[in-house]
Amino acid sequence: MSDARWLAAAAALAARARPESRPNPGVGAILVKHGKVIARGWTQPGGRPHAEAVALAAAGEAARGAVLYVTLEPCAHQSARGPACADLVCASGVARVVIGCMDPDPRTCGEGLARIRAAGIEAAYLPSLACARSLSGYLVSRRLGRPEVTLKLALSLDGCMAMANGESQWITGPEARAHTHAMRARADAILVGGGTLRTDNPRLDVRLPGLAARSPERWVLTRGAAPDGWRALPSPEAIGAMEGVQYLFIEGGAVTATAFLAAGLVDRLLLYRAPILVGGRPALGDYGLARLADAHGRWSLTERRRLGSDTLEVYESSLCSPE
């Protein structure tokens, strides 16, 4: 396989770390020798050991002469919780290192690769979209000082999220709802508006076998106090103060979705479309577009798939890019 494909494989492996690796990023690492994987690793719960440390420990002496593929530049700073991964790499005997993302952390940025090269090991930075997407929450939090925000909307064909009387369970079918639960399991925090909380009293947990422990923290958008088991966010702009949150998942309702869009704080859209016509309550209100022309060019389709009778479309914002 090519370097790019090995990096994509490491990025897929990194998904196992999310979100339990927080406050550290979820990183994936693969050791390859003679075209075969000899070891792999991902960031462990609580952030340590790092992916490289896990893979190198698993390989032992077999790491000598191998190629290490890692989604993020190996860390170069010392920590009481463990050694710098760049130093572990230097001592491992690997012949080559390929990374998919530079680390924006000023304690490492460029220093990790420099230290590895100074040890006589070939080290290459190969920009990888797959790696960047696997680290999106970490990269956004480092560069923009806030979590990555994913807005989920379950819609009818006519853009409604509920009947005129407010009934909304269920717009989409069981396959789409199961997918939503899988997305919840990848988030650090999940947020709804005060109206949704009062009307629906949602559980917002993960109800998939084996993943219940990955239910995210529950937040409500309100200027008042949050009920027991919830945390309050006074405004969309306050997300930068959500300590330890890299991935924020927003599920409702229309007022909250509109507020985050109006603030320019939505990085990713998950649109679950059901093949039904409702003629009820629209999913969004006026979020401040002055002209229709301003709506174009803001979103790029990155994925489309069928989920039972429903369709999922994933869009990324061109306005919130951390680059």
TrEMBL record:
Catalytic activity field: 5-amino-6-(5-phospho-D-ribitylamino)uracil + NADP(+) = 5-amino-6-(5-phospho-D-ribosylamino)uracil + NADPH + H(+); 2,5-diamino-6-hydroxy-4-(5-phosphoribosylamino)-pyrimidine + H2O + H(+) = 5-amino-6-(5-phospho-D-ribosylamino)uracil + NH4(+)
All copies of domain CMP/dCMP-type deaminase, residue ranges: 1-116
Record's keyword terms, sorted: Hydrolase, Metal-binding, Multifunctional enzyme, NADP, Oxidoreductase, Riboflavin biosynthesis, Zinc
Keyword ATP-binding on entry: no
Source superkingdom: Bacteria
Cofactor binding note: Binds 1 zinc ion.
InterPro entries reported for this sequence: CMP_dCMP_dom (IPR002125), Cytidine_deaminase-like (IPR016193), DHFR-like_dom_sf (IPR024072), Eubact_RibD (IPR004794), RibDG_C (IPR002734), Riboflavin_Biosynth_HTPR (IPR050765)
EC number: 3.5.4.26, 1.1.1.193
Cofactor: Zn(2+)
Associated pathway: Cofactor biosynthesis; riboflavin biosynthesis; 5-amino-6-(D-ribitylamino)uracil from GTP: step 3/4; Cofactor biosynthesis; riboflavin biosynthesis; 5-amino-6-(D-ribitylamino)uracil from GTP: step 2/4
GO MF, one example: 5-amino-6-(5-phosphoribosylamino)uracil reductase activity
Protein family per UniProt: In the N-terminal section; belongs to the cytidine and deoxycytidylate deaminase family.
Biological role: Converts 2,5-diamino-6-(ribosylamino)-4(3h)-pyrimidinone 5'-phosphate into 5-amino-6-(ribosylamino)-2,4(1h,3h)-pyrimidinedione 5'-phosphate.
Protein name, per record: Riboflavin biosynthesis protein RibD
Source organism: Novosphingobium clariflavum
Gene designation per UniProt: ribD
